[in-house]
Design goal:
Elements: E1 6-10, H1 15-26, E2 30-34, H2 43-54, E3 59-62, H3 71-79, E4 83-86, H4 95-98, H5 100-120, E5 125-131, H6 155-174, E6 178-183, E7 186-187, H7 196-205, E8 210-212, E9 219-220, E10 223-224, H8 225-236, E11 261-266, E12 272-273, H9 274-285, E13 291-293, H10 309-315, H11 323-338
Parallel strand pairs: 1-2, 1-4, 2-3, 4-5, 5-6, 6-11, 7-10, 8-13
Antiparallel strand pairs: 9-12
This protein binds nicotinamide-adenine-dinucleotide.
InterPro entries: Epimerase_deHydtase (IPR001509), NAD(P)-bd_dom_sf (IPR036291)
Domain NAD-dependent epimerase/dehydratase: 7-238
Keywords: NAD
Length: 340
C-alpha cells in the first residue's frame, strides 16, 4: 500500500480551503488545516465548514494566525508535510482600500512565515494562491501567464503580486518546487458573503435592491469551486522542476529559467457579463432584481478572462461548469443553509 501523504492547507476553513480539504481527505491524505477563523466575514460559516472537515479522522485543525512567529515552523517540523497549499489570506479588493494593514500581516508576513518553514523542512510541492487581480492594469485579453503583470490596481492585488515575487525567490534560492495559482472569481455553495453572488442573492431574497457597479458593464471569468479544486488536485501531482536552460521552457509556459517555479491560471476561460450572472440568479430564485446602477469602484477592473491553455496542457483539464448551473447550485445551497 502507498504511504499516506500529509498535506498542510492554510485557510482550510475558508471557501476554497474547505472544498480542497474535503477532496484531499477523500483521496486519502492526512490534512493539517490552519485557519485563524478571522472575522472578515461571518466566522460561524467558517466554523461550520471546519466542523464538517473535522468529521473526518484524517483532519486536524489549528486555529491560529499564520503570521504568528514560529507557528508554521513548528507545524512543519512536527508534521513534515509532503504537500502545502497556501490559501490563507486577507482577500477582497474593496476592503483593502480602508483596511490595508490586515493585508500586510496575513498576506506578506504570513507568506514569509510559510516560506521560512518550507525552507527548513522542504515539502515535495508548495502551491500558493494568487489572483487574476495580479494582472493589474493589463487590458489585453485573455490574460496569459507569460504576460507582464504590473501596475496592480488595489492594495489586495499589490500584496498578492508581492507574494509571487517572494515565493519565486525562495523557489530559486532553496530549490523549492512552487506553483503559483492565479484564480479567477471563484463561486459556488459555501461561497464568500463578501462576493457579488452571495450579496445579490441575500438582497433579492430580502426584497432589497442590488448594487450593480460600473452600470453592469463588468465581465468576470466566473470559476465554479469544484472545477477549481479538480484543477488544483491535478496540479498537486505536477510539481515544476528547475529547467536546465531557458530553451526548455515551452511557448506559453511560465516556468522560470532559474527556479522550479510555475504560474498557472485557473479560470473558466469563458467570461460572463455581470448582467448574465444576475439573470441566472433571477431564474434560480424566480424573481426580478431591483438594481442600483453605480459607478466603477476604485481598485476594480472592468473585465477578467483567463487563458487556460497552460492548465489544459499540464492537467488535461479546464473548468467546465456553466454559470447558470453553478448559480443554481449556489442558490439551492443558500436557501437551504439560511432557511429562506
Ligand atoms: P476565504 O476568505 O473564504 O478563505 C481564506 C481563509 O483564510 C479564511 O477562512 C480566513 O479565516 C483565513 N485567514 C485569513 N487570514 C489568515 C491568517 N492571517 N492566518 C490564518 N488564517 C487566515 O477566501 P477564499 O475565497 O477561500 O480564498 C482562498 C485564497 O484564494 C485566498 O488566498 C484568496 O486571495 C485567493 N483567491 C480567491 C478568489 C475567489 O474568487 N474566491 C480569487 C482569487 C484569489
Amino acid at each position: 500500500m502507498a504511504e499516506q501523504r500529509t498535506a498542510l492547507i492554510s485557510g482550510s476553513a475558508g471557501f476554497i480551503g474547505y472544498y480542497l480539504g474535503q477532496r484531499l481527505l477523500t483521496d486519502g491524505f492526512r490534512v493539517i488545516g490552519v485557519d485563524s477563523l478571522s472575522d472578515y466575514y461571518d466566522p460561524n460559516l467558517k466554523r461550520r465548514r471546519q466542523a464538517n472537515l473535522l468529521q473526518n479522522a484524517g483532519f486536524s485543525a489549528v486555529n491560529e494566525p499564520i503570521e504568528k512567529p514560529g507557528l508554521l515552523a513548528d507545524l512543519f517540523a512536527e508534521h513534515r508535510p509532503d504537500i502545502v497549499v497556501h490559501l490563507a489570506a486577507q482577500a477582497g479588493v474593496r476592503y483593502s482600500i480602508d483596511n490595508p494593514r490586515s493585508y500586510l500581516e496575513s498576506n506578506l508576513v504570513g507568506t514569509f512565515e510559510l516560506l521560512e518553514a518550507a525552507r527548513a523542512h522542504p515539502p515535495q510541492h508548495m502551491l500558493l494562491a494568487s489572483t487574476s487581480s495580479a494582472y493589474g492594469a493589463n487590458t489585453e485579453m485573455p490574460y496569459r501567464e507569460t504576460m507582464k503583470a504590473d501596475h496592480q490596481m488595489s492594495f489586495y492585488a499589490a500584496t498578492k503580486k508581492a507574494t509571487e515575487a517572494m515565493a519565486h525567490s525562495y523557489a530559486h534560492l532553496f530549490d523549492l518546487p512552487v506553483t503559483m495559482f492565479r484564480f479567477f472569481t471563484v463561486y459556488g455553495p459555501w461561497g464568500r458573503p463578501d462576493m457579488a453572488l452571495f450579496k445579490f442573492t441575500r438582497a433579492m431574497l430580502a426584497g432589497e435592491a442590488i448594487d450593480v457597479y460600473n452600470h453592469g458593464e463588468m465581465m468576470r471569468d466566473f470559476t465554479y469551486v469544484e472545477d477549481l479544486v479538480e484543477a488544483i488536485r491535478r496540479l498537486i501531482d505536477a510539481a515544476p522542476v528547475r529547467p536546465e536552460s531557458a530553451e526548455d521552457i515551452a511557448e506559453g509556459d511560465s516556468l522560470s529559467p532559474v527556479a522550479p517555479w510555475r504560474v498557472v491560471n485557473i479560470g473558466n476561460s469563458k467570461p460572463v457579463q455581470l448582467g448574465d450572472m444576475i439573470a441566472a440568479i433571477e431564474d434560480a430564485l424566480g424573481m426580478k432584481a431591483k438594481r442600483n446602477l453605480m459607478p466603477m469602484q476604485p481598485g476594480d477592473v472592468p473585465a477578467t478572462w483567463a487563458d487556460a491553455e497552460l492548465l489544459r496542457t499540464l492537467t488535461g483539464y479546464v473548468p467546465e461548469t456553466d454559470i447558470r448551473e453553478g448559480v443554481r447550485r449556489f442558490v439551492a445551497w443558500y436557501r437551504d443553509y439560511y432557511q429562506v
